[in-house]
Design a protein that fits this description.
This protein is mainly β and about 90 residues long. It has two domains: about 1-30, no CATH class; about 35-80, SH3 Domains (SH3 type barrels, Roll). The chain has strands spanning about 5-10, 10-15, 20-25, 35-40, 60-65, 70-75. The strands form two sheets. A three-stranded antiparallel β-sheet has the order 1-2-3, with no helix packed on it.
């Protein structure tokens, strides 16, 4: 998954993980929002282990890959709060 940082004509700048570079825009296809799976953290998970993602309860995690043995890969994104709406969701199990 490429995160597009800048669109400049036929060549765009993007990021995959910790690598940043340019690529021709006709080599990529935009993934629609309906194809993106989002998970909500039901408990905090904090780790210093390399390759593991730390998060807080209630944080949205964008799933990038589902692995076997119960581990997923994902990313946490940032956006300006004035363009979002917070929802209160209660657990069905409480």
């Amino acid at each position: 998954r490429i995160v597009v940082l800048q669109r400049d004509g036929d060549w765009w700048t993007g990021k995959i993980g910790d690598r940043t570079g340019t690529f021709p825009n006709n080599y990529v296809q935009k993934v629609g929002a309906s194809q993106q799976e989002v998970a909500v953290a039901i408990a905090p998970f904090h780790t210093n282990e390399e390759g593991r993602l730390s998060f807080d309860q209630g944080q949205l995690i964008y799933v990038t890959k589902k692995g076997d043995k119960g581990w997923y890969q994902g990313e946490i994104r940032v956006w300006p709060s004035q363009f979002s709406l917070c929802l209160l969701i209660r657990s069905c199990f409480s």
